[in-house]
Amino acid sequence: MTFGRSGAASVVLNVGGARYSLSRELLKDFPLRRVSRLHGCRSERDVLEVCDDYDRERNEYFFDRHSEAFGFILLYVRGHGKLRFAPRMCELSFYNEMIYWGLEGAHLEYCCQRRLDDRMSDTYTFYSADEPGVLGRDEARPGGAEAAPSRRWLERMRRTFEEPTSSLAAQILASVSVVFVIVSMVVLCASTLPDWRNAAADNRSLDDRSRYSAVPGREPSGIIEAICIGWFTAECIVRFIVSKNKCEFVKRPLNIIDLLAITPYYISVLMTVFTGENSQLQRAGVTLRVLRMMRIFWVIKLARHFIGLQTLGLTLKRCYREMVMLLVFICVAMAIFSALSQLLEHGLDLETSNKDFTSIPAACWWVIISMTTVGYGDMYPITVPGRILGGVCVVSGIVLLALPITFIYHSFVQCYHELKFRSARYSRSLSTEFLN
């Protein structure tokens, strides 16, 4: 070590107030890469690139880091046990300390590696890079001060449309959007009532009646529907304009749902314009009614404004492995029990066979309603072996469905608490803005 107080046989590391004394020989080959770099420092400038401060008189190096985390890391590198997370410390914060001192995630115990992977996955899925505080970092960059007003305006607009609890204007905008969704759903449901259709078709000719359900905009319900579509379209366009990453915006599930909810209306309008008054409209009527029913996706837009629907979507995204496992369990059990039930109810005695179990695909329906304990009663076994098999099928369904649902439940609770935490954080920002 060429820099430091001459004649000193040891150096002192001060990490967050905790002092550790190390010999110069040990410092050279110390397992922590940042600490061993002190041995090669030739000037005070080199030292300050490694640590936060240095006291030449006492030969003491200061590190403004977490002292408890460094204690766990130091015990590990000295060979006293395995590396695990410090109690009452965030996994990401501890991992940040590990990276700072020169360790990697592979040094952690396997159980802690899984906790770290889950935590990093949750953070990447839920917390985006454009959280509050990013704007300040942009202003600190070269040339950021000039562009700060425009960035601030875009950031405010983006948060107004993306985060319903981020400001008072965002809450008002979210409330208006929810009203439009509810109105559009009520109109869509009411338009399928027979009395509604009959009242609207009283003064129409037979040809008009055949295309009524497909042509939007000619009745009061069509006018309301057009206004709602106009609002949704304008909202989607503005959100696309103020988004930071246009490609990422298009890939988001909620934005895809918005597109699926808006597009059928314009397709039905174009098909009506092109088919006109000829007979092709009757052939296109089924397609137009299908497109009209696709607007039921509007109700999923409520996920932007209600934490319960957001929790459901985030849980399904994180638990796709458990969902696949659940489907595999059901499919395997359905294949076994449907084959056995078809054999016991229809294959052994053709004279007294059960006509409901004529094939394995037909028996699959009975298996699925039995495993889920629904039991519509439309088909059931009549033989004693078939009834015994039915009892086994019901009990097996309860057990197989309960196993993966436990993991899904815990993930749902975790997602709910995380979303509540984020909503509370933005609510505090809203309170500050309202008071100011």
TrEMBL record:
Membrane topology: Multi-pass membrane protein
Matches recorded under SUPFAM superfamilies: POZ domain (SSF54695), Voltage-gated potassium channels (SSF81324)
Residues that span the membrane, as ranges: 168-193, 222-242, 254-276, 296-316, 323-344, 356-376, 388-412
Entries under Pfam families matching the protein: BTB_2, Ion_trans
Compartment(s) where it occurs, according to its Swiss-Prot or TrEMBL record: Cell membrane; Cytoplasm
Keywords tagged on the record: Cell membrane, Cytoplasm, Ion channel, Ion transport, Membrane, Potassium, Potassium channel, Potassium transport, Transmembrane, Transmembrane helix, Transport, Voltage-gated channel
GO terms of molecular function: delayed rectifier potassium channel activity; potassium channel regulator activity
Any one GO cellular component localisation term in the record: voltage-gated potassium channel complex
Family: Belongs to the potassium channel family. G (TC 1.A.1.2) subfamily. Kv6.3/KCNG3 sub-subfamily.
Subunit structure: Heterotetramer with KCNB1. Does not form homomultimers.
Protein name (record): Voltage-gated potassium channel regulatory subunit KCNG3
Organism (species): Callithrix jacchus
